[in-house]
Design a protein that fits this description.
Blueprint: H1 2-20, E1 39-40, E2 46-58, E3 72-74, E4 77-86, E5 97-105, E6 111-115, E7 125-130, E8 136-139, E9 143-149, E10 155-164, E11 172-181
Parallel strand pairs: 1-11
Antiparallel strand pairs: 2-3, 2-4, 4-5, 5-7, 6-9, 7-8, 9-10, 10-11
Length: 183
């Protein structure tokens, strides 16, 4: 009887953990075009934050400095911003890095699916801010963005992209993650 109870507990735990291991929103379609791993909510060694700005627009001016400018202004679009800040190492000076992904959609849209060159239609933008090294605004031309507006007004987003920066030492930035913002 004792072995049966232990077996039952093991099976119950296995069922519990297997049902929770992939709580991916069934509405997402990105798996037809994306083959790879993704992270949920944030990437390792980062703290993340997402915001939605209604009645806004993304606009960059020549010479804008990422340390001075967040290019969100009043307008007629909905702007999504997702920031990934590297966790600070107190033993390393000037290791603070902030990566930001931003894009805009029409306010009446409840679902979107943009891939590669279509990302131009939503002004997809990657910003890297890093003291003393690489910084800049980069249009995202390679990747896949999908999003659904939830009944409570929040959004579930899948963001996958690849950027090569233009600094003295080009950096490849690749991310794939699922986030929920607007809470």
């Amino acid at each position: 009887m004792k072995s049966f109870l232990v077996l039952f507990q093991i099976l119950a735990c296995a069922l519990l953990f297997s049902s929770c291991s992939d709580d991916l929103d069934e509405r997402f379609q990105f798996k037809k075009d994306f083959q790879g791993k993704y992270e949920k909510d944030c990437t390792a060694n980062h703290s993340c934050n997402g915001t939605i700005d209604f009645e806004s627009v993304l606009r960059l001016d020549d010479g804008d400095d990422p340390f001075q400018v967040n290019p969100v202004y009043r307008g007629n679009m909905t702007v999504f911003s997702f920031e990934m800040k590297f966790n600070d190492d107190p033993l390393v000076g000037d290791d603070e890095i902030l990566d930001r992904v931003q894009f805009e959609i029409a306010p009446e849209i409840d679902h979107f699916y943009y891939k590669d060159q279509d990302l131009q239609n939503i002004g997809a933008l990657f910003t890297r801010m890093m003291r003393g090294m690489e910084k800049g605004f980069y249009p995202i031309r390679e990747g896949l963005f999908e999003g659904y507006k939830n009944a409570d007004g929040t959004w579930s987003l899948f963001l996958s992209f690849r950027i090569v920066t233009k600094g003295r030492i080009p950096v490849v930035v690749e991310r794939a993650l699922i986030v929920r913002i607007g809470e």
